Amino acid sequence: MIMKATQLLSQYRYGILDFKGAPLHSAHLEAADLTRINLTQADLSDADLNDADLSGACLQQANLTNANLNNTSLVGANLSEVNLIGADLENADLRGADLSGADLRCANLHGADLSSTNLTDVDLGGTDLTNADLTDAKLAGTDICVAVTDGATIDQINWGACERKQENTSHHWVTWSGK
Q1: Which residue, among 155, 148, 120, has the nearest Cα to 134 in the 3D structure?
Q2: What is the pLDDT of residues 26-54, one digit of tens each?
Q3: Which residues form the domain of 173?
Q4: What CATH number corresponds to the domain at position 141?
Q5: Measured between alpha carbons, how far is 142 from 177 in angstroms, rounded to an integer?
Q6: Mean pLDDT throughout 141-157?
Q7: Taking the model in full, what pTM does it have?
Q8: 16: helix, strand or coil
Q9: Nearest in space to 38 (alpha carbons), one of 6, 84, 79, 93
Q10: Contact at 8 Å (CB) between 22 and 2?
């Protein structure tokens, strides 16, 4: 049974923060304040979290396939091993977030702030990183293949044990992979 967004918001307002494994497929949580919420292993596929505040939230192993996270704040959030395939994170604020082991294939990160983000062992294949800020991001073991990277800021990236194998930004084909 799918949990209604209104149920989650009502319980959250009463101080309940643990929604581990919650079935929230296609939930409408636009502009919701969900700071520090625990949505570990929750199903948020096709959910609308546009303009929501999920700062400090735990979304470890959550399913956010095709979710709308435009302009969402995920500052310091735990998104490790999360499924964000096809998710729309345009202009999202992910500063300091942990996305280690996440699957972001074909996601839209256009204009996203990924500064100081842990992107270790992330699959960014086909991801739009146009104008994204990757300053001080950790990219050890990360694979970007056929990704759009025009205008991306990549200053002070921590490559860890990575080897930069190919780079041809005029054809938008970049691959980073660990040894």
Answers
A1: 155
A2: 999 999 999 999 999 999 999 999 999 99
A3: 1-179
A4: 2.160.20.80
A5: 5
A6: 61
A7: 0.84
A8: coil
A9: 79
A10: no
